[in-house]
């Protein structure tokens, strides 16, 4: 990509990469805060999410600038449409990391998750962080082959979520703890789903194949 | 709106209105299926969601067609960007109605929600249906004044969700039921959040005011 239009597209993509980096850091920090009951860290994550939201507005402005200045061809427009969708998903991933952090603040000084599920949530956090790291690479390199593999990583999040649900009836938690656990597991699972959608958007922008899962 | 470009925008908007109608019908039917334990209705809702997803692809194609054929000014581009975001939110609202329906199928022939929470879920279903109806009007008429009122309706969903959470510790449900209840309440609450986002997008497209809540 070398002409002025494509330089603008590269700059647009750099904003998406920045968003992906930030939401990846946020979910990693949120998991640490969850496992340690660290309210100061949780508060910082909630505050940082504003920066992610601000990036989304910057992306919108950049897109409108870009579209008013240049006549784009269909393949470039696919990329631009993809950028809009990707920014929506990344913004949501930031929200989900924020939700994890907020659950820490809501129950402090008590722990949100019971000791018996710490390993499962550590596994979800690790999988989400790994997915985010891959996502940064996929976006930065427009790596659509890697992008098509993303749902395999996401399967791990789904598997841990299923394991947590299966344990629930036997662990004898109160309703409030059970509710917290189910919601938290869902936040991680949704984080993964959005990452898969972003990856599919990259694949779509590169290949034009719309028959990728949006369910 | 009268020139060919604006006719195309109107057609694009008609697709969004169609999506909004369908997801409104879906959440209404899903609530009935939830309250009645009606698995046949639940299966139909799951199947119908494919049509909502298909509309999203149609909207993408229409947007690319539109942008390749015409030079749009910034205000029209705001509308087009808004249409992309709106279609993402509406597709997600369809998913959430589908999730309610799937929970019916997952627990059948048992009821998903306990009798003591039937009225609360009926209230959430009624609020979600009412919000959807308003949303159809807001989209069809580009009614940004009504759009700015949408978060008031959404407050009711949040209030019922809080009420359900507050009751949980005292109702003595098992962990599985508590988990189901918390997730279902969240599906309705998220449905409302997405409706508010759609309404804000309409307001944004009409007024250009980006300082609307995206949290």
Automatic annotation (TrEMBL), chains A, B:
Residues 17-104, 123-201 form the PhoU domain. Pfam families: PhoU. The keyword Cytoplasm applies. One of its GO terms (cellular component) is cytoplasm. One of its GO terms (biological process) is phosphate ion transport. The keyword Transport applies. NCBIfam families: phoU_full. Homodimer. PANTHER family: PHOSPHATE-SPECIFIC TRANSPORT SYSTEM ACCESSORY PROTEIN PHOU. Belongs to the PhoU family. This is Phosphate-specific transport system accessory protein PhoU. It comes from Glycomyces terrestris. The gene is phoU.
